[in-house]
C-alpha cells in the first residue's frame, strides 16, 4: 500500500466552499454514523482541492470529528487519494497479468518516452501525470489504461498516441 | 444458449428503467414480496446459488445465519470491488443492467429483513458508479425504492459507497472496515459478518453477480435454477476470459461447463494458433492448471477436487510462449503491493517471494530458490488473518511445483533455454519496477 509518499502542502489555507458544505451534509445523511462518511468526504476533498495535503487533513478532521492521526491513517492507506498534485490528465496504466500478456511493458515504455515522464511524475507543462497500477478489471480489453476517469483498452502505440493527442 | 444476468446486454439503453422494465426487470419483486421471507431463503438454499465473489459459499445458507433475535438493524452490503486480477464481470451488470442488481437487492433485503443496503464499488469504476447511482435515483423516483417499495409495507434505501484503490477491500471484513471509514484491515473471524458486520450489526455481504441471480431464482423456482447447473452448484455464472485467446470477453454459461469448452468453443481457442500451456481458472489467486487439466467442469467442487478453485471465474490463458517464472513475478509483485501489512507472514512473505522470483529472472537465482519459494509460501499459508496470504501463497506453490523445470532452467542458465519467440516477457530483465 502507499503511505510513505510525502504529502505536498497547499500554497495557502484551504476551506470548504458553501457547495461542498452542503454536499457534506448530504453525505452524512446517507450513513447511520459520521465515521462511515469518511471515504466519501475524502473523495469530495480530492475534487475540491486536487489532493490531500496536511491542511486538507486538518479540515477533514474538523468535519468528521476525528483526530488527525486517524484521518492520516485512512488517507495514506488508499492508493487513489493523491497526496500531491497530479497532471491535468492522470494516466493509470495497468501492469497486471492480462495486460502484461498483451504487451503492457512495451506500451509503458512507449508512454514514458512519449510523455517524457516516469510513473509518479508530472510533465513539465503540468498536463500529464503517470501511474502504474494493478488490474483495472478491464482484462478482456487488455492492455488497458484509465485516463481522467474513463477506461481505454486494446491499446496499441497508435492508440496511445491518439489518446495523448486528444488530451493535450 | 440460455442467458440470465447478461440477457439484456446489447439492448439499447438497457440501463434505463423503462427499457429494463420492458425486458422483465422488477417483474419478480411482486412475487417475492408476496412470499414469506423465510420461504425466499429456503428457495435460494434449494437453488444452490453459490457466492460468486470468490469463496462460493451457498447464498441462502449465509442468509440463514443471521441471528433471529437481534434487536439491531440488519444490513446488506454488496461487494462491487472487483479487484481479483482476471475478473471483469460485475462491471457488465453495473453498466448494462443496474436495475437487475437493484431488483436482486430488493428481494434479498426483504428476505433477510434489512432496510438498508450499501453497494461498495471500486474507486476506478466511474461509469459503473454513475449507472448504479442513476438507476437508484430512477427507482426512487418511480417508488421502487423508498419508504414503500412498490407500494408495499417495506422500506428500503440503497447507498453507493466508492472505494479508493485497495485490492484488500474486496475481502469482506476489510470492506466493512473501509465502509466504516477506516483503513481496510481485515478482521479476525469469527465473529462472521452475519453476526457482527457493519457497525457490529448483523450483515450479509454478497457479490454483485450473486445478487443479480436472485430474481431468476424467484422467477423459475429454486429447483429449476439448481437444475441448470451441476451438483451443488446451481444456475449459471459469468466466466471472464482473458490472456492469449482469440476472443477474450465475458461468457455466461452453466455452472460446471468444462474449461476446455469455454476456452476453445466460446473464447475462440488460443491466439495465433499456438498451443495452450497453462490456465488460471478462477482469478489470480487460484492455483494454476496445466494444459492436461482443462477437462475439469468449472464449478466450485470440481476445481477444489483437483487442488484449484473456481473463485471469481476469472480465466487467464497462457500459451506455449509465456515464461511461467516471468508471469509469476507479475502476480507476486501484485500481492506484495496489495498486502495490507497487518500480518507479518503476509507482509514479509509476499515481499520475499517477489524478491526471490526477481533474482531468479535477473539471472542471480540460487539452486535452492525453487524450494525457498515453496517454503516461504507454506509459512504464509493459513497463518494470516484474512485469505490474502493464502491467495498469494497458492499460486507460488502451484506454479513452482507444476513448472519446476522452468524455474530451474532460469536458475542454471541465468535466462530461459527456450527464449520466447515473441517479445512479451521483458519483465525479468531488470526493467521491472522494484517493489
Ligand atoms: C483478498 C480478497 C479479495 C476479494 N475480493 C473480492 C472482490 O473484489 N469482490 C467480491 O465480490 N468478493 C471478493 N472477495 C470475497 C469476499 O471476501 C466475500 O467472500 C464475498 O464478497 C462474499 O460474497 P458472495 O458470497 O456473494 O461471493 C475477496 C476475498 C479476498 C480474500
Ligand atoms: S490485468 Fe490489466 S486490466 Fe486486468
How many helical stretches of chain B?
Answer: 17
Full CATH superfamily name of the largest domain in chain B: NADH-ubiquinone oxidoreductase 51kDa subunit
- Which value, in Å, is the CA radius of gyration of chain B? 22 Å
- Main sheet: strands, sense, barrel of chain A: 4 strands, mixed
Protein described:
The complex is a heterodimer of chains A (168) and B (435). With 168 residues, chain A is an alpha+beta fold. Chain A has seven helices and four strands. A four-stranded mixed sheet of chain A has the order 2-1-3-4, with helices on one face. In chain A, helix 1 packs antiparallel against helix 2 and helix 3 crosses helix 4. The longest helix of chain A is centred in the first third of the chain and has 12 residues. The mean pLDDT of chain A is 95. Chain B has 435 residues and is α/β, with parallel strands linked by helices. Chain B has three domains: 211 residues, NADH-ubiquinone oxidoreductase 51kDa subunit (Rossmann fold, 3-Layer(aba) Sandwich), CATH 3.40.50; 84 residues, Ubiquitin-like (UB roll); 90 residues, de novo design (two linked rop proteins) (Up-down Bundle). Helix content of chain B is 41%, strand content 11%. Chain B is built from 17 helices and nine strands. In chain B, a hairpin with an 8-residue loop joins strand 7 and strand 8. Chain B is globular, with a radius of gyration of 22 Å. The C terminus of chain B is likely disordered. The structure holds flavin mononucleotide (FMN) and FE2/S2 (inorganic) cluster.
Characteristic terms for this protein:
heterodimer; A: 168 residues; alpha+beta; Arc Repressor Mutant, subunit A; Glutaredoxin; 2 domains; four-stranded mixed β-sheet; 42% helix; 11% strand; elongated; B: 435 residues; alpha/beta; Rossmann fold; Ubiquitin-like (UB roll); de novo design (two linked rop proteins); 3 domains; disordered C terminus; binds flavin mononucleotide; binds FE2/S2 (inorganic) cluster
Amino acid at each position: 500500500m502507499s503511505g510513505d509518499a510525502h504529502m505536498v502542502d497547499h500554497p495557502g489555507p484551504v476551506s470548504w466552499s458553501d457547495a461542498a458544505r452542503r454536499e457534506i451534509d448530504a453525505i452524512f445523511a446517507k450513513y447511520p454514523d459520521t465515521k462511515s462518511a469518511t471515504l466519501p468526504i475524502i473523495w469530495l476533498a480530492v475534487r475540491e482541492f486536487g489532493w490531500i495535503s496536511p491542511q486538507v487533513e486538518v479540515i477533514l478532521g474538523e468535519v468528521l470529528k476525528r483526530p488527525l492521526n486517524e484521518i492520516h491513517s485512512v488517507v495514506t492507506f488508499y492508493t487513489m487519494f493523491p497526496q500531491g498534485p497530479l497532471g491535468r490528465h492522470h494516466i493509470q496504466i495497468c501492469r497486471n497479468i492480462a495486460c502484461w500478456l498483451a504487451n503492457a511493458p512495451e506500451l509503458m515504455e512507449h508512454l514514458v518516452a512519449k510523455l517524457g515522464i516516469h510513473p509518479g511524475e508530472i510533465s513539465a507543462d503540468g498536463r500529464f501525470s503517470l501511474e502504474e497500477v494493478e488490474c483495472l478489471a478491464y482484462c478482456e480489453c487488455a492492455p488497458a489504461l484509465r485516463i481522467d476517469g474513463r477506461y481505454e483498452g486494446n491499446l496499441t502505440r497508435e492508440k496511445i498516441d491518439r489518446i495523448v493527442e486528444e488530451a493535450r | 444458449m440460455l442467458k440470465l444476468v447478461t440477457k439484456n446486454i446489447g439492448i439499447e439503453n438497457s440501463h434505463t428503467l423503462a427499457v429494463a422494465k420492458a425486458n422483465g426487470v422488477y417483474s419478480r419483486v411482486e412475487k417475492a414480496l408476496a412470499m414469506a421471507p423465510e420461504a425466499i431463503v429456503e428457495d435460494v438454499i434449494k437453488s444452490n446459488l453459490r457466492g460468486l465473489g470468490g469463496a462460493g459459499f451457498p447464498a441462502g445458507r449465509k442468509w440463514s445465519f443471521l441471528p433471529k433475535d437481534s434487536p439491531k438493524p440488519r444490513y446488506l452490503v454488496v461487494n462491487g470491488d472487483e479487484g481479483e486480477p482476471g475478473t471483469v464481470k460485475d462491471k457488465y451488470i453495473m453498466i448494462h443492467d443496474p436495475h437487475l442488481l437493484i431488483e436482486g437487492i430488493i428481494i434479498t433485503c426483504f428476505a433477510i429483513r434489512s432496510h438498508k443496503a450499501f453497494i461498495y464499488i471500486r474507486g476506478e469504476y466511474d461509469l459503473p458508479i454513475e449507472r448504479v447511482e442513476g438507476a437508484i435515483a430512477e427507482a426512487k423516483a418511480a417508488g421502487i425504492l423508498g419508504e414503500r417499495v412498490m407500494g408495499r409495507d417495506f422500506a428500503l434505501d440503497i447507498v453507493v459507497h466508492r472505494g479508493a484503490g485497495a485490492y484488500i477491500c474486496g475481502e469482506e471484513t476489510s470492506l466493512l472496515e473501509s465502509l466504516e471509514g477506516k483503513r481496510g484491515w481485515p478482521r479476525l473471524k469469527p465473529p462472521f459478518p452475519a453476526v457482527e458486520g457493519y457497525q457490529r450489526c448483523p450483515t450479509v455481504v454478497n457479490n454483485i453477480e450473486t445478487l443479480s441471480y436472485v430474481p431468476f431464482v424467484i422467477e423459475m423456482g429454486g429447483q429449476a435454477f439448481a437444475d441448470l447447473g451441476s451438483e451443488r452448484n446451481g444456475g449459471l455464472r459469468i466466466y471472464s476470459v482473458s490472456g492469449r485467446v482469440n476472443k477474450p470477453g465475458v461468457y455466461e454459461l452453466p455452472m460446471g461447463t468444462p474449461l476446455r469448452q469455454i476456452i476453445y468453443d466460446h473464447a475462440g481457442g488460443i491466439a495465433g494458433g499456438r498451443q495452450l500451456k497453462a490456465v488460471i481458472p478462477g482469478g489470480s489467486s487460484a492455483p494454476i492448471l496445466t494444459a492436461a487439466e482443462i477437462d475439469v467442469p468449472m464449478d466450485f467442487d470440481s476445481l477444489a477436487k483437483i487442488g484449484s478453485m473456481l473463485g471469481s471465474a476469472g480465466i487467464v490463458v497462457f500459451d506455449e510462449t509465456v515464461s511461467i517464472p516471468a508471469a509469476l513475478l507479475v502476480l507476486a509483485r501484485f500481492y506484495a503491493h496489495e498486502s495490507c501489512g497487518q500480518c507479518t507472514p503476509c507482509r514479509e512473505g509476499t515481499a520475499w517471494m517477489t524478491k526471490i522470483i526477481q533474482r531468479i529472472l535477473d539471472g542471480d537465482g540460487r539452486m535452492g530458490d525453487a524450494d525457498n519459494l515453496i517454503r516461504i509460501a507454506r509459512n504464509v499459508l493459513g497463518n494470516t488473518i484474512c485469505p490474502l496470504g493464502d491467495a498469494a501463497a497458492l499460486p507460488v506453490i502451484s506454479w513452482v511445483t507444476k513448472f519446476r523445470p522452468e524455474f530451474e532452467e532460469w536458475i542454471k542458465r541465468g535466462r530461459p533455454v527456450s527464449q520466447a519467440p515473441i517479445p512479451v516477457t521483458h519483465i525479468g530483465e531488470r526493467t521491472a519496477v522494484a517493489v
